[in-house]
């Protein structure tokens, strides 16, 4: 028999499309809940890529790539005007 998991305890990957709005409404959107979500994400990332026996540059390079992409998105408006064009 399949065990029934309460909607609040389901992970996003286990939620069906029809249950998605109900699942989203059950999330905690208070500042404490959002901070807890960021903290869980940080610890999950840290334990998976940084705090390992045989580490590599993968964890640091992903953070660096995200930083570069974020800064590019933030400065895209200014960079858009500096493109080389055929006719000025």
UniProtKB/TrEMBL annotation:
Originating species: Rhinolophus ferrumequinum (Greater horseshoe bat)
Domain of life the protein comes from: Eukaryota
Classification via InterPro entries: F1F0-ATPsyn_F_prd (IPR019344)
High-level lineage: Eukaryota, Metazoa, Chordata, Craniata, Vertebrata
Keyword Transmembrane helix attributed: yes
Bilayer topology annotation: Single-pass membrane protein
Subunit structure: Component of the ATP synthase complex composed at least of ATP5F1A/subunit alpha, ATP5F1B/subunit beta, ATP5MC1/subunit c (homooctomer), MT-ATP6/subunit a, MT-ATP8/subunit 8, ATP5ME/subunit e, ATP5MF/subunit f, ATP5MG/subunit g, ATP5MK/subunit k, ATP5MJ/subunit j, ATP5F1C/subunit gamma, ATP5F1D/subunit delta, ATP5F1E/subunit epsilon, ATP5PF/subunit F6, ATP5PB/subunit b, ATP5PD/subunit d, ATP5PO/subunit OSCP.
Protein name as catalogued: ATP synthase F(0) complex subunit f, mitochondrial
Biological-process GO terms, alphabetical: proton motive force-driven mitochondrial ATP synthesis
Protein family (similarity comment): Belongs to the ATPase F chain family.
GO (cellular component) term, any one: mitochondrial inner membrane
Annotated localization: Mitochondrion inner membrane
Pfam families reported in the protein's UniProt record: WRW (PF10206)
Function: Subunit f, of the mitochondrial membrane ATP synthase complex (F(1)F(0) ATP synthase or Complex V) that produces ATP from ADP in the presence of a proton gradient across the membrane which is generated by electron transport complexes of the respiratory chain. ATP synthase complex consist of a soluble F(1) head domain - the catalytic core - and a membrane F(1) domain - the membrane proton channel. These two domains are linked by a central stalk rotating inside the F(1) region and a stationary peripheral stalk.
GO MF term list: proton-transporting ATP synthase activity, rotational mechanism
Transmembrane segments: 56-76
Subcellular location, principal: mitochondrion
Keywords associated with the record: Acetylation, ATP synthesis, CF(0), Hydrogen ion transport, Ion transport, Membrane, Mitochondrion, Mitochondrion inner membrane, Phosphoprotein, Transmembrane, Transmembrane helix, Transport
